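Input/output pair, single chain:
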Amino acid sequence: MAGRRRAGGILLLLALLAAACRGSASQRPVLILILVDTLRADHLHAYGYPRETSPFLDALAGRGVLFEQAVSAAPWTLPAAMSLMTGRLPSSHRVENDGMKLAASIPLLAETLRNAGYATSAVVSHLYVSRPFGFDRGFDRFDDFGLSKDYRFEAGLEPRAEKVTDRALGQVRSLKDRPFFLFVHYFDPHWDYDPPPPFSNRFMTPYSGSITGKYSSFSEFARPDRSLSQEDVQHLVDLYDGEIAYTDSQIGRFLKGLETEGVARRSVVVVVADHGEEFKEHHSLGHGRNLYDESIRIPLLLADLRTEAPARRIAEQVRSIDLFPTLCDLAGIPAPRGIEGESLLPLTRAQAAPSRPAVSETIRFDAYRKAYRLPTEKLIVSLENNARELYDLKSDPGEQSNLYETRAKQAMALEHSLFEQVDVLAGGWNLRWSSDGKPHRFSGSVETDGLFTRVVPLFPESGRHRVMRGRRIDFDLEGVVRGGGLSFSVDPPEARIGFALALDGTEDSAPIFVGRERKRPSSHPFAFAGPLASDILSRPDFRSGEELGFFLWKNPGPSPEDATELSDAMKERLRSLGYLR
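Output:
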């Protein structure tokens, strides 16, 4: 009898706890995250742009918080969007290029919210925020318009903003009776710059040239070594601004739909971009390789529509990786371990907080670059050619005057801070060369069947190495009297990696020592693939500048399951983007 009473008491307690949880969940806000592709902050009227490109976003900013200095973790969609959804930098989530998929061990925002009781839904309009890369994990419903099944760039399969809004509102109607998280992605500002009427002519200035908004008409001018007239560039900007205004109108229609469905007064709406766009400010068009502000400074609006709080503008610098913990904070749940961002809610509540240093990264098109941005200064490190750029953002917001040579000490301090946040050597290979105190030439190549995700030159000279298509590194250094080297990582970690090394121009004479036991390769060139012998995971003993030769080992790192190679069929589809080479 006593046992039955105890069992009954336990059941009653569980029922009460479940009811409390349901009550708590019902009071949680609806969370809506709107991601606009390729949207520069400085092309929104609310951010000071003279053209009225964004009346609906401006009105939303008038009901919430506008972050004046928000910085993306990457200058193109795939790693930037994954940083939003993981709260991690690209080098941490490791979905940095085509052919990579998020590891199952890394939690996503949608699954975190779903585990806390939220219904989760998404409407996305491009492959780079879709299933093949792992973005669908955690969503009860994931609508990508079929793009992940048969994507062909030249077919123009990306849906316009009108269709995205239609489907997003459909999901609102089906979810409005419970707390939900909705992710909405608009692609339109991305090239092709082809806004529909009347937006196609809204900002048009007189133009007599041949350039259109089609990527095929200006792709040859995207490179920094190909110039465009100011008239041509302005024509592209006019079309781009039309795309922004069109997308803004559809976001306005979506926000109106929230009110019509009775959801607005329960909602927190966040609008953010994945990255910006270049219009020859630094000689390039498009995005992906460069880390200047036109590519990484993004708009960020947060409007809590449950309140009537006055609008605020926050000057402190924040990062895109801060949104994951912010949305968790709004939902009243802890963020998972491993998150690199911090909640923005203290800032929105007028609590004093310093600006947050922002790291941005890319390994796109053989550009292995990292930036460390503070509100008033910024360092860009180009590891593919060992170059550095330092800018004073207060006196030179356009980043036109490189101060690295005159402020080397300041740049060194920023670089130290950068590499405190970014672990470039975890799980990586280490190739070192050492002279015997006499000048020698060290040269060679490293190739992989995977993809180089880190390349770190350990010598001061610029232009003495190059990366080709992400799968080969060549290097050639003459007159070395002490030492140097390269550190690099590949994905997947067990991909084949081959070495061809030469001393003083001759491969046969190069002394090569591998791992703790200093084994000599049985042939040359030589390669490794699959599981490695344990001694290779330890550094060989040598003193740089005293013993002549190459020294090779690999740092222990993530397991092969931490990155997933896409199928050959998907790689072929991605080549149609013009991105995968």
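Residues 1-24, 559-581 have pLDDT under 50 and may be disordered. Residues 302 and 329 are 13 Å apart (CA to CA).
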